[in-house]
Automatic annotation (TrEMBL):
This is UvrABC system protein C. It comes from Streptomyces pactum. Interacts with UvrB in an incision complex. PROSITE patterns: GIY_YIG, UVR, UVRC. Residues 259-515 form the UvrC family homology region profile domain. NCBIfam families: PRK00558.1-5, uvrC. It is found in: Cytoplasm. Residues 523-535 have a biased composition (Low complexity).
């Protein structure tokens, strides 16, 4: 690993002008190419304290061994040279968009004597007109099959064409009217080329004139009572319209445009492009790439523009669908600076290009569709990546190597804390086994705000570190108690359980552990829950037939956070005497892996499968914690004065509201009147009356139409037992 100061240029050597620079490693391989409006300012930013650099930039400058640059006249020239060098050197630290598959296109070989219509993949060839690309080859064949009825262009291979010419008999398509059979001389080479030109014009979007000409010929044939010819023309018109319907009309003004949308996370980005020609979607393509350099959305858009149009020249409308640059390019974010990119696109098209973000109307709606496609493409890519057994095995091995573990962590548990400004503090625990989520093992925690028997705070602060210490302590305390039951842990060595946290006993008001299906009810038994998908709980079963809680220890504990959270988790394990469970933390902002007692984080490569797995585990814990915290917050907001009455369950609350009709009448009732409700004793009635007296009544509702003060019936309306009744 090189020290950037060892190859830093001397002061004054770097010119203050536009240019392109290259970083090379010790083997003289180009590892990064960049452009700058001012080479001096840009390159100086790489040679500051490495601790202040982005992790990806830090990795690049420490891998490099030298830097060189080329001065150009304008920023447009810098953009062109940057693209050329990226294409030539393929630097490892540059974002490179690659097709996630080879998209097929409809091609017409106009360079041949008898042009042929066919499906083509891969790089474009000279003398061939392309339309597309399409998502599926069968979509091209369906379109061609409809259009051959009107434009009977040759579709056969060179061998079939030559054989038919030798035997003097056309193929089957020639007999059924879907080929003009130039192989046997039914049409001349000029006539066949004219058919191919009409086919290309129709595919390029110039459809209105040709359809009107066919309709006129159909009417003339009908007037001359040539009904069979009129019927054939009618069927031809229908076939062309069906071919047009396969590309939905999306822009009413017949615009030629490309729409580019992105979906990204910290590690990867997916780009989707819709090619719109003549107001219709003529093609679609997309890529997924690793974010190997520190780049924002605008930077990703600029890279995508270079990838799309770096080899294109001319107008897209004249090039026919796939080639060329359209007059309008719609993007989710504008590159900065914008002018050089627009000028570069204009030079490649030969005319002005409008590069902008759609703000309203049909174009904005279509951009939302492209965005959804990008999000689906990224989600599908992640799903395929996560479900691959070989990839999961490699990820676990990379984690074991990076964290210096004795073996691959087959069971990983991740903890996350969630709260809303210090209120409703909860935690989540998710479990991944063999790289896949095991939702039946997920657990949720209400944070009690204490360690051992010492009360630390009362839910008013935002102390994620103490919360992390508490939740890890409670999880592994239960694990040790399970070992104690089986005799694997001696009773005198078992940690003392704080009051209110005894396994199997109802938890106090401070907190509880619940399984995903327990609904977050304080005191619910974690083992009695169901998994998040709704199935029965899995895992070892005790003598009473109920699943044992926290019976399996993980090989790795992951916490959402940096060094403080990792230290808290490690301290919790040490206090319990557990030294065979590894701990690490994943900081979301920079995706750094923190280890206990280390001053510097472990930086995994951005393309690492191990980092991708850790990110999935962390994101799943965060999702699960957020969902639980929101559900608790919703229940708190819906709670009424009767919910705070100790010993008063849901059935008796409903009975009280049904008897009195409203909370206002219940508040005004005497203790004797409350005792008249079935199931309510005098002690309970006194408790209810005291609780309602302490609770401040809500402000009266006012009917804005009449000015009348409405009676408080909010509790009545909210109660299923009293819905539809009146006081």
């Amino acid at each position: 690993m090189a020290d950037p100061s060892s190859y830093r240029p001397k002061p004054g050597q770097i010119p203050d002008s536009p240019g392109v620079y290259k970083f090379r490693d010790e083997h003289r391989r180009v590892i990064y190419v960049g452009k700058a409006k001012s080479l001096r300012q840009r390159l100086s930013s790489y040679f500051q304290d490495v601790a202040n650099l982005h992790p990806r930039t830090r990795t690049m400058v420490t891998t490099a061994a030298s830097v060189e640059w080329t001065v150009v006249s304008t920023e447009v020239e810098a953009l062109q040279l940057e693209y050329s060098w990226i294409k030539e050197f393929d630097p490892r630290f540059n974002v490179k968009y690659r097709d996630d598959k080879s998209y097929p296109s409809l091609a017409v070989t106009m360079s041949e004597e008898f042009p042929r219509v066919q499906v083509m993949r891969g790089p474009k060839k000279k003398g061939v007109r392309y339309f597309g690309p399409y998502a599926h080859a069968w979509a091209i064949r369906e379109t061609v099959d409809l259009m051959l009825r009107v434009f009977p262009v040759r579709t056969c291979s060179a061998g079939v064409f030559k054989r038919s010419a030798q035997i003097g008999r056309p193929c089957l398509l020639g007999y059924i009217g879907k080929c003009s059979a130039p192989c046997v001389g039914r049409v001349s080479a000029e006539e066949h080329r004219e058919l191919a030109e009409e086919f290309c014009d129709f595919m390029a979007g110039r459809t209105g004139t040709y359809l009107r000409r066919l309709e006129q010929r159909m009417r003339e044939a009908a007037e001359e009572m040539e009904y069979e010819r009129a019927a054939r023309l009618r069927d031809d018109i229908g076939a062309l319209k069906r071919a047009m319907e396969k590309n939905a009309v999306v822009l009413a003004d017949a615009t030629d445009a490309d729409l580019i949308a992105l979906a990204e996370d910290e590690l990867e980005a997916a780009v989707q492009i819709f090619h719109v020609r003549g107001g219709r979607v003529r093609g679609q393509r997309g890529w997924v790439t690793d974010k190997v350099e520190a780049v924002d959305t605008a930077g990703l858009v600029e890279h995508a523009l270079q990838q799309l149009y770096g080899d294109e020249l001319g107008d897209a409308a004249e090039a026919g669908g796939r080639g060329g640059v359209p007059k309008e390019v719609l993007v989710p974010a504008l590159p900065s600076p914008l002018e050089p990119v627009v000028q570069w696109l204009t030079d490649r098209r030969g005319a002005r290009v409008d590069l902008r973000i759609p703000q309203r109307g049909d174009k904005k709606d279509l951009m939302a569709t492209v965005q959804r496609n990008a999000q689906q493409a990224l989600a599908l890519h992640k799903t395929r990546r996560a479900s691959d057994l070989t990839t999961r095995s490699r990820a676990l091995e990379e984690i074991a190597t990076a964290l210096d573990l004795d073996s691959a962590p087959l069971r990983i548990e991740c903890f996350d804390i969630s709260h809303l400004q210090g209120d409703d503090v909860v935690a989540s625990m998710v479990v991944f086994e063999d790289g896949l989520p095991r939702k039946s093992e997920y657990r949720r925690f209400q944070i009690k705000g204490r360690v051992g028997d010492t009360q630390l705070w009362h839910g008013t602060g935002q102390d994620d570190v103490r919360s992390m210490h508490e939740v890890v302590s409670r999880r592994f305390r239960r694990y040790l108690q399970e070992k104690q039951k089986t005799g694997e842990w001696q009773e005198q060595d078992a940690p003392e359980e704080p009051a209110g946290d005894v396994p199997g006993a109802p938890a106090g008001p401070g907190g509880a552990e619940t399984a995903p299906g327990a609904g977050g009810v304080p005191g619910a038994d974690a083992a009695a829950g169901v998994d998040e998908a709704g199935g029965p709980p899995a895992g070892p079963v005790g003598e009473d037939g109920r699943p044992r809680r926290f019976a399996y220890p993980p090989q790795l504990v992951v916490v959402d956070g940096g060094a403080p959270q990792v230290a808290a988790a490690r301290r919790a394990l040490e206090e319990l005497g557990i030294d065979d469970v590894a701990v690490c933390g994943l900081a979301k902002r920079l995706e750094e892996v923190w280890l206990p007692g280390e001053s510097d984080p472990v930086v995994l490569p951005r393309s690492s499968e191990g980092l991708y797995l850790l990110q999935r585990v962390r994101d799943e814990a965060h999702r699960f914690a957020i969902a639980y915290q929101r559900s608790k917050r919703g229940k708190t907001m819906k709670a009424g004065p009767l919910d705070a009455v100790p010993g008063l369950g849901g059935s008796r609350r409903q009975a009280l509201l049904k008897h009195f009709g409203s909370l206002k009448r219940l508040r005004a009732a005497t203790i004797e009147e409350i005792c008249e409700v079935p199931g309510i004793g005098r002690k309970t009635a006194e408790t209810v009356a005291a609780a309602l007296a302490q609770a401040a009544p809500a402000a009266p509702a006012v009917n804005t139409a009449t000015g009348e003060i409405m009676e408080d019936e909010a509790a009545t309306a909210a109660s299923p037992a009293t819905r539809g009744t009146r006081p």
